[in-house]
Amino acid sequence: MKLTRSVSALLLAAALPLMRAQAPASDPSGPIKFGGVTVTGTLRSRLYFWDWFQPAAGNNTYQYSGNLFRIGLSQSRDTWDWNAEFAVPFLLGLPSNATGTGPQQGALGLGANYFSANSASRNTAMIFPKQLYLRFDGLGGNKGHTLQMGRFEFLDGSEVLPKNATLAAVKRDRVFQRLIGTFGFSDVGRSFDGVHYAYATKSDNFTFIGAVPTRGVFQVDGWGWNRIGFGYTSYTHQWGSPRHAADTRFFFIEYDDFRHILKTDNRPLAARRGDMANIRIDTFGGHTLHAFETGSGTVDLLFWGAVQTGRWGVQQQRAGALDIEGGFQPRTLPTVRPWLRGGFTYGSGDGNPNDNRHGTFFQLLPTPRPYARFPFFNMMNTEDRFAILLLRPHPKVTVSSEFHALRLSNANDFWYSGGGAFQPWTFGYTGRATSGRRSLGNLYDTGVDYRVNRKLTLSAYLGYTQGLAVMEQIYPNGKDGRFGYLEFNQRF
């Protein structure tokens, strides 16, 4: 923590003379520049509305404000660049009693997570370095080699953004950050401290990352580390023809959690308390994404899958997950430009809490919200049958509606939620026993994005979950839930 602050101070000190050397650029639509240093900033402000499933006692209906201001200094040279970006999250009006008292009821929405992660404060804020890195291009005179060192952001799957618009959109929304991500939907997020190496050609990309995740996500203090490390390696290939564009990736992730804290799984509490051994999981996977141009419209297909081996403390890790999706953009109805998508996502569960095998797919350090817009579930022990309708009635307006039929993969395992470690003493995932029930709920939602101009976007979201057998068991006073927000996002 002291080392990171010292590096921050040194970079700022180096940048100040350059900033004084020249007045800001006069172009109001472009970035602000002082000499060779570019200054950028964003302010994202949300007003949240929660109506969680009804507990026996506790506040499940509340509102609060989550805000994140980011300001960055950067400079690019011929063969290297640097970036020093600082984040200021500030949360206002957090709920003080949004925790259920009944069996397994737990946190009643994300407001409870923010409140408990920040010393039970209703209003809290902090400043910390979000990114702080040096990046070298063309190492050893070889074009295509890039080495990044320091604190940076990374989303697995984002190594290559396809030139094909359909592939790029599907990859951004349905592939990025399933297993490693910044949790950027939260009002703090996470970064990674380490090294990021990439070698890229016109059609191929090889990437390696070795890093530790920073604190954050729900805790506004993002200075320190978690006692977790991971190595990520991927190979991505762009291929196809003028009427068939394709993107294929293979990846391997080694994840090591050496925090000696209570694990979240379906074993009896006494067994879990007796198992403080490391979690070391190897994940092998890949995706292939295709877009076909036909006479009636564009068809897209996505296959994503992963298997896991290794150790879950004293148990063996044996788990897997898959996602199969398809979409169609018909040439009809050009005034709204519809895009219909559907698919099935599966994450394995554990069928026997008393054996030596842990069968629950572990989602590592993802950003779960793109795949669970009402964030009460993730890919762990979950089956998700879904349909998506995207409408684009105007270049500045996008309307997205989704339906998800959710149930647990294994009735003997937990209903899991969360997105990975965010502080050393909190596991990062919660699990609720369901007494053998599998049906979780039907989720209906709609989101609207309005891009007012190049720098300002306004968004709104509303989700409704019709709770089924699991919710009836855990929340007998009210099995349905609602979640929504209004968002203002300004770039400077």
Give a description of the structure.
The structure is a single chain. The model is unreliable at 1-26 (pLDDT under 50). The protein starts with a helix and ends with a strand. The protein contains five helices and 24 strands. It has 492 residues and is mainly beta. It has helices at residues 2-20, 110-117, 165-174, 269-273, 469-474; strands at residues 32-34, 37-51, 61-76, 80-92, 124-125, 128-137, 145-152, 192-200, 204-213, 228-241, 244-257, 279-293, 297-312, 315-317, 319-330, 339-347, 357-358, 382-394, 397-408, 415-418, 429-432, 439-451, 456-467, 481-491. The longest helix is centred in the first third of the chain and has 19 residues, at 2-20. A hairpin with a 2-residue loop joins strand 1 (32-34) and strand 2 (37-51). The chain is 10% helix and 49% strand. It has an 18-stranded antiparallel beta barrel. 40% of the residues are buried.
